[in-house]
Amino acid sequence: MASAFNRASVTITDAASWYCAIVLLALILLGSIRENNSLSDESQVRGNQFFDRPCDEIYVVGEGETLHTISDKCGDPYIVERNPHIHDPDDVFPGLVIKITPSKPRKLS
Question: Which residues pair with 83 in a beta bridge?
Answer without folding.
Answer: none
